[in-house]
From TrEMBL:
Domain of life from the UniProt record: Eukaryota
Keyword terms: Metal-binding, Zinc, Zinc-finger
Pfam families reported for this sequence: zf-TRAF
Protein name in the entry: RING-type domain-containing protein
C-alpha cells in the first residue's frame, strides 16, 4: 500500500513539473511573438537621442543651404550687386536681370522669369534688400590668402589689407615691371635698380609716360576750347526703340527731331552694327549716328560728343567723351555710325530700360 502511494505521489510531481515546463515554454513563445510587434512599433519612432553635431558642422551646413537658397536663378551665383525678385519671389542678380531684359527686347519677346514664367519688367520686379544684406554677411574665401571673411569686408581686404594681394613696384612709372605679392614688395624695393638709374637711362620711359599725359591733357584742353566758342548747342535727348518692317525684324533707336544751332537734327542708334541675331552674342555695343534734317546751302563744320544725361539711370556709369569732327553739306547729311564708349554690361543696362537718355554737345566751328 505504501509503495502504491509513493508511486502516485511521484507521478503527480512529474506531471506538475512537466506542466510547469510546458507553461514556461508557452509563455516564452508568447513573449517572442509579442516582441517583434513591440520592436516594429519602437522602430517607427524617432530615436530618443540624436547624434551630436559640432558647431562647425552646423555653420557649414547653414552656409551651404543659405547660399543655394539666395543664389541667382540664372547664373546660380551669389552676387554682390543688387538682387531683384519676380512677383513670385525668384531671385535674379542685377547683371542677369538686365541681360535678360536686353535679350528679350532684341528678340521682341515678353520677358519672363526663368523659373515660373511670369512676366517681369523693371516696373513689377523689386529689389530684395533682405537678401542683399544676408549675402553680405555670408563668408567668402579670399582669392589671395585663402582666409575666410565676410562678403561685405572682402573687397576692402583684397584691395588694402591682404598681404598676398598682387601689387606693382613703387617705381613702375620709371619702367620697373616687377609685380608680386604685397609682402614681397619691401624686399624688392631694397634690390630695385630703378631708383639708382641716371636720368639718361630713364629718359625713354619718361617720354613715353609724358606722351600719355599729354594726350589726356590735350583732350581736356580741346573740350575747354570748344566750350569757349560762340555757337554751342546742348541737347538732352531720349533714344526710343523701333523695329524694322523687314522679314528679319531688327531693333534700332531714334530720337525725336530737335533744334540746335538753328538746324533740325536727329540721332539714330543700332546694336552691334546691325549684325544678325544680336541676342545670341555675349558682347554688345551701341553705335550712334548724327543726321541733319534741315536743308542747307553751305557747309557746317561741326564737332560733337555724347555725355551721360541728367535724366538717365543713376546707376549708369560716366560715358568717356570722344570728340568727333564732321562737315555737313548738301550731299553729306549723315555721319558714319560711331561707337559709344561703353562696356557690354553697360550696354545691357541701357537696353533693359524703356528708353536711353543722354546729352549731346554740338559746337559749330567758326569759319577762318
Amino acid at each position: 500500500m505504501t509503495d502504491i502511494t509513493t508511486a502516485i505521489s511521484n507521478d503527480l510531481q512529474t506531471n506538475s513539473l512537466s506542466g510547469l515546463a510546458n507553461l514556461s515554454s508557452d509563455t516564452n513563445e508568447m513573449i517572442e511573438t509579442i516582441n517583434p510587434i513591440s520592436d516594429s512599433i519602437v522602430s517607427d519612432e524617432p530615436p530618443t537621442k540624436k547624434s551630436k553635431i559640432t558647431s562647425n558642422d552646423k555653420l557649414r551646413l547653414l552656409e551651404d543651404r543659405i547660399s543655394s537658397i539666395l543664389s541667382c536663378c540664372i547664373c546660380l551665383d551669389l552676387s554682390t550687386l543688387s538682387i531683384f525678385q519676380c512677383v513670385n519671389g525668384h531671385l535674379m542678380c542685377a547683371s542677369c536681370f538686365n541681360h535678360l531684359l536686353a535679350d528679350c527686347k532684341l528678340k521682341d519677346e515678353q520677358t519672363t522669369c526663368p523659373n515660373c514664367r511670369c512676366e517681369i519688367s523693371k516696373s513689377n520686379c523689386t529689389r530684395n534688400l533682405a537678401v542683399e544684406k544676408t549675402i553680405s554677411e555670408l563668408p567668402i574665401q579670399c582669392d589671395y590668402c585663402l582666409q575666410i571673411f565676410l562678403r561685405s569686408e572682402i573687397k576692402n581686404h583684397q584691395s588694402q589689407i591682404c598681404l598676398d594681394r598682387p601689387t606693382i613696384c613703387d617705381y613702375s612709372l620709371l619702367g620697373c615691371n616687377w609685380n608680386g605679392p604685397f609682402h614681397s614688395l619691401s624686399s624688392h624695393l631694397t634690390v630695385c635698380e630703378y631708383p639708382n638709374k641716371t636720368g639718361l637711362e630713364l629718359i625713354d620711359t619718361i617720354q613715353a609716360q609724358k606722351c600719355l599725359y599729354d594726350d589726356e591733357k590735350k583732350s581736356l584742353e580741346t573740350v575747354v576750347d570748344l566750350l569757349s566758342l560762340n555757337q554751342i548747342g546742348v541737347s538732352d535727348l531720349v533714344l526710343k526703340p523701333f523695329r524694322t518692317d523687314d522679314f528679319v525684324v531688327k531693333l534700332y533707336f531714334e530720337t525725336s527731331r530737335f533744334t540746335a544751332l538753328q538746324y533740325q537734327w536727329q540721332v539714330r542708334a543700332r546694336i552691334n552694327d546691325n549684325i544678325p541675331h544680336p541676342h545670341t552674342t555675349i558682347t554688345r555695343s551701341l553705335s550712334y549716328q548724327l543726321v541733319l534734317k534741315s536743308k542747307i546751302n553751305q557747309t557746317i563744320d561741326l564737332k560733337f560728343f555724347i555725355l551721360k544725361g541728367p535724366h538717365g539711370d543713376p546707376s549708369t556709369s560716366q560715358i568717356q567723351p570722344i570728340i568727333y569732327h564732321f562737315e555737313f553739306n548738301q550731299n553729306n547729311t549723315e555721319t558714319e555710325y560711331l561707337k559709344l564708349p561703353i562696356s557690354s554690361q553697360e550696354c545691357n543696362r541701357m537696353l533693359s530700360s524703356s528708353s536711353i537718355s543722354f546729352r549731346l554737345l554740338m559746337v559749330q566751328l567758326d569759319k577762318p
